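Rifampin ADP-ribosyl transferase
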Amino acid sequence: MSPQAKDPGPFYHGTKADLKPGDFLKPGNTSNYGERKTANYIYLTATLDAATWGAELGVGEGPGRIYRVEPTGSFEDDPNLTDKKFPGNPTRSYRTHEPLRVVDEILDWQPHSPEVLQNMRNHLEELKRLGIEAIN
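Tokens:
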């Protein structure tokens, strides 16, 4: 069964990019995370919490933003999370080679507390120190 059949959405993408409805997010750009390698996938989630992490931790200037997006093709579970950290995909995190179309911006999302955000940044720094790069 494909993820689309199991998860009807809605879907979100967290970033620092300033986008408008109708814009497309595509793989092949520089990743917003880690060593900023070329991203082979574009990521989406069906939870605002996971999108919030993307908005808060992405590289870039300006505020974090969360967009409601529509996949234009097939997508699969994000193995960086589902296989390694959260079997069964409770974060409802996915990746795709196909563009995501921006539907609108979510304006009423709640950021993580400063303490929780700092704990995540510390954890990511430790992974970096260990040479672990999850995003491909």
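The chain has one domain: 3-129.
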